Amino acid sequence: MATVRQLFDLTGWLSVVTGGSAGLGLHMATALAEAGSNVAICSRNREHCEAAAEELRKHGTEVLAVACDVSRAAEIEAFKDTVMEHFGRVDVLVNNAGRTWWAAPEDIPLERWQYVIDLNVTGTFLCSQVFGRVMIRQSRGKIINIASASGLVGKNPEVHNSLAYNTTKGAVVNFTRDLAVKWARHNILVNCIAPGFFLASRNRGRFEERKEKILGEIPLARPGGPDDLKGPIVFLASDASNFVTGAILSVDGGVTAW
Ligand SMILES: NC(=O)c1ccc[n+]([C@@H]2O[C@H](COP(=O)([O-])OP(=O)(O)OC[C@H]3O[C@@H](n4cnc5c(N)ncnc54)[C@H](OP(=O)(O)O)[C@@H]3O)[C@@H](O)[C@H]2O)c1
After folding, report:
1. In the chain, what are the domain boundaries?
2. Given this model, what pLDDT does residue 238 score?
3. 115 carries an active-site annotation
4. Is 21's C-beta closer than 6 angstroms to any atom of ligand 1?
5. Is the CB of 79 under 6 A from ligand 1?
6. Is the full-model pTM beyond 0.85?
7. What is the CATH number of domain 4-251?
């Protein structure tokens, strides 16, 4: 029987985090590095990605930063090839890169709707397929998709007027369940984290404008912070969750509890 420390230890593993240069992706990449994993992060901006990698290296693990747009299949293949050349394995994939578009449903331009779908849904599928093929050859792997509390329920338009985003996050939830069922035979465990409101660079202004309304929806009455995803991501990445697949873990201060 393994000890709890052994179960959570990621020493020598390789974790891929898309959109790992900022925000929640960087929080989760930091947690994985702190748990001992080597990390490969990607984002479109190479400089931001390299700067984040410098920070991550302070945890003593090997870190690779690659410029890659996860809505483009050829770039994901190239990212995977670079990861395999450097590390020769992929233990964990975190499908984190995602974007929103704020508009009333009646005003969303088709190209913006498509942009959000391409990144949040198709990007999650493409990365899972490309890195999943490696995991199938390894007969092991963990895929963790980042959905949202907004993918679980309808949301107040005064706070979250983002139908395209909420639709994609609902899709990511059932993508998780169905892929978990289909790849269980390959010992690939697929789970999902549904974060509530976390302060990140892109939503700080929105938070200040709507602070009372946003906090009024959260039983814990605060936004998520840099430490709040660390436990959930390391749990779902590590051997501590080897009998957990197809699960949706809400990390939202209770926002979906009522
Ligand atoms: N913040 C929240 O309150 C919250 C709540 C629930 C769920 N989430 C989810 O958590 C994830 C991260 O959100 P965040 O708030 O941390 O966002 P963020 O601060 O905007 O960071 C997004 C990251 O993804 C990268 N990225 C964006 N488009 C990309 C693309 N096409 N290909 C590759 N990388 C791309 C960005 O770098 P580049 O711009 O350089 O590409 C950046 O590293 C998203 O899936 C989001 O839906 C966030």
Report:
1. 4-251
2. 98
3. no
4. yes
5. no
6. yes
7. 3.40.50.720
